[in-house]
Structure formats: structure tokens, C-alpha cells
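Notebook entry, structure prediction.
Reason for the run: the old model in the group folder had no record of what sequence produced it. Starting over properly, with the input documented here first.
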Amino acid sequence: MSTNQDLRKIVPARHDAKDSTPVRQGGGTTLGRFCVSPTPTPSDLRQDVLWGQLHALTVIAQVGSFTKAAQRLGLSKAAVSQRIAELERAMGQNLIARTTRSVRLSEAGQHLVDDTEASFAQITASLAAARDAVGQPRGLLRVTAPVALGRQHVAPLLTAFFRQYPEIRIELDLSDRLVSLTQEGFDLAIRHTSAPPDTHVAVKLCSSRAMLVASPAYVLAQGRPAHPDELARHACLPYLRPGPAFWLFERSGGVPGSEPERLRVPVQGPLRAGNSEILRDAALAGLGLALLPDFTAAPALAQGSLVEVLAEWRPVDFFGDAIYAVHRWSSSTPRPLRLLVAHLQSCLAQGFA
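New structure, fully documented this time:
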């Protein structure tokens, strides 16, 4: 049986009980009590019924999987698969090459996405602008932030935001990995970096710096280092990264315009961890010296439970020197997103000192 025959639809047909001869109906052939009619060709289809299927294809192209596309669209994975199957039947060809490990668009599928993706983005922006023009701002924002920064400073600021804008909802994902806003469907990323991406809109929320700290008890027992070279004999608590642990310090030169002095110091100690809160707690317990971002160290410094060490030397090239709110560029940024960025910018303007 040919492919076209496989895709034919079975529909009820007129049948003359006195004559079992097949009767032609609407271009199909009557067999018994049913009429077998050919599947409509693309030219027979109402194209407006395919908008949802086309949109699903563009989302799959962005996120790279049916599961993530379903999450973005608020549908089941089976519903997304059905939409793509319907679109492929309508187009008469495969649009997605599926394997056990990946989803890749065929050449025809990529052409469809290239031709329609910008239009769908514009429709989304236009709908958001129309909704924002009236009444209370509302909608869902998906936000990602680093774990420590999100727990300590982003999440606590949301209570006041919700009181002011009760119709806005936020999904806050805390992760220290660098997520893709486009592929994973996030509206906003809070980034601790020195180099925000130039492919996105990056709004600076505040400055930030790294600090070398220790507990007063550790300093009393082991002494306060006066120079980075002395760290070799101290217990240090490095951030967990591949390879041996090194800290890089910089001190301005004594002569105006001269190059700053730089030192790269190997360090070691009883604990390495990939989270600044864990390292802060270890320093509070007197386990050693910790290099922390100021937003993690500041509360303990204010309470006197941690003290800064080697303050005249600036740790460099380890943590970022600013906090940014990063989002995709749009000709009309949704009002809820603008309001959240403005709220964070206002609350964090003074930094963490």
C-alpha cells in the first residue's frame, strides 16, 4: 500500500442496499459502509489551523527537545508530539530527525522555522504590549539566579514586589550553571560577572567584589597574613574548580600610572566547595581563610563574626565585579519584566557593603 493510501481517512458513506457496487463520493471510493477518501493535500488545508503546530516547531528548535518544549508551552510531551506529527502530515515530509539522544530539524523543518520564528516572536511581543496597556500588570516570569545570590538577596526582595504587583507570578530557578535563556525558556537571568553577554540586554544592578576573610578566632590562633606569599602556610578554603587551587591578587603601584603588582598564589586547606555559603560557614567555624563574594561575606562582616584579611590586595579574575539582570532583546519588553528589573535595581543600588 502506498504512503498516500496509508494516510487516507475512513468516513461514513452512502450505500445502496440493493447494489453493492462502490459509489464515488466527493472524490473517494465507497467500500461497503465506508468511503475511503484521500488525505487532503497541503493546498486543501486551512492554513490557519496549523499556527499552533508551527509554533511548537519553533519552540522545539529553540530548546532542542520535546520535553523542554512541552514545559515551555504548558502542554504534555504527547500533545507536542501530536502537533508535530500533524504538521509533518500536512507538509508531506519529515520536519524533525529524532534519535534517542537528540532532536534535530530536517532541512525543510529548518526552513519553516527560519521563515516563521521572527513572526511568532513579534506576535508574542504584540500580545504582551496589548495586555500591558490596560489594568494591573500580570503574567508569569521565569527567572534564574546563582544559588547563593538568589537565596540571600534575590528571593528576599520578591515579597515587596508581590505586594506591589499581586498579579505577577515568578518561577525562580537557582543554579550555578550558565543557563541559556532562549533554549530553557527563561525571561530573566541574574548574573554575577565581569563580562555580560553582548547578545542580550544587560542592566547593571550593582557592583560586587571578592573578599578574603577569616574568623577572629582563626586570626588569633594562626595570625593575620601581611602578604599573599604568606598564604602558603595558612589553611585556605578554595572554591571548587578543576585543577589546583590558585588565588590571584592585585595591588596598585606606588607611582601614578604604573602597572599594578600581581601575584598568583597556590593555596590549599581542609575543604574545597562549589558554594560560597558553605565556604563562609567553614570560615565562621575557624577552619581557615575563605575567598568570598561580598554578598555572601557582608552580613558576617557587619556582625564581626568574620574579618577581612589582606584588604590592600584585591582578589581578581575569580568572581565577577558586578551583578547584572540579563534578558533577551525585544522591541517591546513586557511590562512585568521591566518592573521586576527596576525593582531589583532600586533595591540593590547600594551594593552589599
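Summary: The longest strand covers residues 139-145.
The old model has been moved to the deprecated folder.
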